[in-house]
Each structure stands twice: as C-alpha cells, then as structure tokens.
Amino acid sequence: MRGFAAFTRKEFTEYLRSYKLLIIVMVFLLLGFMNPVSAKYLPELMENFMPAGMKMEIPEPVIADAWAQFFKNVPQIGLVVMVIITSGTMSQELSRGTLLPVLTKGLKRRAVWLSKFTGAAVLWTGSYFLSFAVTYVYSLLFWDKASVPELGTAVFFAWLFGLLLQSVVLLGSTLSRSYAGGLLSAGALVLAGMVMSLFHGAGRYSPLRLASDNMSLIDGTLKTGDFLPAAAAAGLLTAAAVLAGIMVFDKKQL
C-alpha cells in the first residue's frame, strides 16, 4: 500500500513537472468558459456578420444551449487532449527502462500499473468536473436559475465514458512500447462504438452513446433507463481493461 501511494505521488509530480497538468487544466478551464459564452453570444455574432439585407430567424439562447456546447466540446476536444497527454504514460517508461529500478526494489507490478491508472483517472475526473463547474457557474450568471432536467445523470454518463477511455488507453500503452499504442486503442474503442451504434440491438450497449446522446436525456427524448445497458457495458469494460492491463504488465519483459 505504501508503494502504491508513493508511486501515485510520483505520477502527479511527473504531471506537474512535465506541464501536462497545466495543459489539461488550461484546456478544460477554457472549455468550461467557452461553453456558456458561445451559447449566449454566438447568435449576436452571427447577426453582426451576416451580409446586409439578409435575415435569419435565430432562436433566443437558453441554458440548455450551454450544456449542448459542454457535451459537444468536452468529449470531442477535452477527451482528445486527455488521450494525447496520457497515451504514452506506460509505453515511455517501458521504452526507457525507468521502471526497472523501482521494481527491483520490491515494488509490485500491479501497484505500478494501478498507480498509473489512478493518476490518469484523477486527472480526468478533476479536469472534467472543473470544466463542469465553470460551465455551471457561468450558465447561472447568464440564465439566472433555469433548471436543466437530468443534468447530473448526463454529466455522470459522459464522465464514465472518459474513465473507460483512460483505462483502454493505458492498456494499449502497456501492450506497446510506442506512443501510438494508446492512441490506437482509443481509436479502436471509438470505432467499435460507432459500428455498434449502426445496429439497433447492439447500439443500446455502445459505451459511445454515453458521450454522444447526452442532450437526448436532457430534452426528454431518451430516459435514464435507455442508457443503463451502455453504462453497464462501460463499467464492465473498464474493469476488464484494468485487469487485463495488470496481467499484461505482470508478464511484460522490461
């Protein structure tokens, strides 16, 4: 347990020294600010840049527009940045051989891998909810106290998909000694989710819908129960990726 805690602290120190933490925080802060601001003022900007004499009926922005931006920007931009930042977490250390000294001193391999996963999971969770908090505060400032149905559930589902993605990225980074391993694993997960979405029966279990159909939950088109199969699949796949990563790293030649 001490080894796990010590190596986890080392992970966060590395995030800080390599400026990865700063980059992630700045990106998600910016997204959190942009979500409500773009929803509030984009219609005015469009009117100002329209050619003279041209008219377009632009609906009055509402608080749901800010959350539509949140569920578009954070999964598409924020998660992409997260994957790029964390995709070499394990492969870089494997290629450099920097894990050999700590392992020869008695630190268990599973503790090392779980520390890597914990670091990535905490980084994703902290940055995600930081962006959520900024969006929430500015949305209340712009639209007073307008309520958003099922917002908490929709936010949780998108976070769960991000956690699954981080576990798969780390598994891919463990399987490969190259930086591309994590990226390819993330791409494979997204592609599999897109293929599953093409089929009605399989689409219900596609984890990708947790980060793509959130507004359907908020506007009432879909219910929470419609997402439960996908959420269950995401939870099981995350656990499977963690177990597989530990097993692969345990047999990995350094």
Please tell me about this protein's structure:
The chain has 254 residues and is mainly α. Helices cover 77% and strands 0% of the residues. The chain contains 11 helices and no strands. It has helices at 2-17, 20-49, 63-86, 91-96, 100-104, 109-143, 151-175, 180-197, 200-203, 214-218, 224-250.
Task: Pick out the low-confidence regions.
Answer: none
Instruction: Let me know the number of strands.
Output: 0
Helix tally equals: 11
Q: Which descriptor suits the 3D outline?
A: globular
Please report the distance between the alpha carbons of the first and last residues: 23 Å
Please state the average pLDDT score.
Answer: 87
Oligomeric state: single chain
Q: State the helical fraction.
A: over 70%
Beta-strand residue fraction? under 5%
Taking all Cα atoms into account, the compactness measure Rg is 20 Å
For the biggest sheet, the summary is:
none
Fold topology:
Blueprint: H1 2-17, H2 20-49, H3 63-86, H4 91-96, H5 100-104, H6 109-143, H7 151-175, H8 180-197, H9 200-203, H10 214-218, H11 224-250
Summed up, what is this model?
This protein is mainly alpha-helical and 254 residues long.
Any key phrases for this structure?
254 residues, mainly alpha, 11 helices, 77% helix, 0% strand
